[in-house]
Amino acid sequence: MKKRIIYTLLILWMSLIFFFSNQPAIASDKVSGGVIEKIVNIIEIISNHKFNDNELEIIFKYLIFPIRKLAHFILYFILGILFYNIIRLYSIDNRKTLIISLLFCIIYACSDEIHQLFISGRSGELRDVFIDTLGSLLGILIVSKIINRKYKDLNDKV
């Protein structure tokens, strides 16, 4: 049952990444713009300041790139966690689990960027593969430390 749930989550997550990558540039920009609008709304509420059109243009100009790259990082952070948990189910030692999980994420990131070469207005970026890899690596390392600490604590109690 646990395997089925993790596999399902992984497939759904990979499908989500594929869905985002399959969007033409115009649609992808709208999604990023929507995130920035929400951030701006929160800032306006907190600061009690309404931005004018010129300020909004500057904010969008400077936030669009980091928001898009943060999305890459977060999507692959979660992908790394999911894949690590699947490999771990097969009782491979932790070092091999880390390596196999990271390799899978790198391969998926490369295939994702190649896929984007065929989407209107999109491009495949080596920089994005690097960001995806860093996100995956951090997710894998964090979940590995949490799981290993949990098992260490259980063994110490026995």
Overview of this protein structure:
There is one protein chain. The protein has helices spanning 2-21, 25-47, 53-88, 94-116, 126-157. It is mostly helical and 158 residues long. It has a domain at 2-24 and 72-157. The two termini are 27 Å apart. The mean pLDDT is 91.
Can you give me a brief rundown of this structure?
The chain has helices spanning 2-21, 25-47, 53-88, 94-116, 126-157. The protein is mainly α. It has a domain at 2-24 and 72-157.
Per-chain topology:
Layout: H1 2-21, H2 25-47, H3 53-88, H4 94-116, H5 126-157
* Element pattern in H and E: HHHHH
Mean pLDDT: 91
Strand runs, count:
0
Structural classification: mainly alpha
The low-confidence runs, each spanning 5 or more residues with pLDDT under 50, are none
How many helical elements? 5
Strand content: under 5%
Using the alpha-carbon principal axes, give the shape. Answer: globular
Radius of gyration, in angstroms, nearest whole number: 19 Å
What is the terminal separation in angstroms? Answer: 27 Å
Please give a handful of descriptors for the protein shown.
single chain, 158 residues, 5 helices, 85% helix, 0% strand
